[in-house]
Amino acid sequence: MDAPLKPDLMKSLEEQIAHLTRTVDELSEVVARQDTEIAMLTRRVQLLMEREAEREASAGGGVVLGDERPPHW
What we know:
Elements (H helix, E strand, L loop, with lengths): L6 H52 L15
């Protein structure tokens, strides 16, 4: 048969469970907030990519070289 838990051990376990529960709740809030932020950033990147694709299509599909000087130089 299992012996009953000592009061000190029971209290310690209850404190640990309370701490872990609080930590899990806090982490859950962080993950939910990050999910919302990632969704928003993903949408912004998508819109920027669409805008850039439209700009490139309207510019006639010219190739931009990385070592080319900007027009104002």
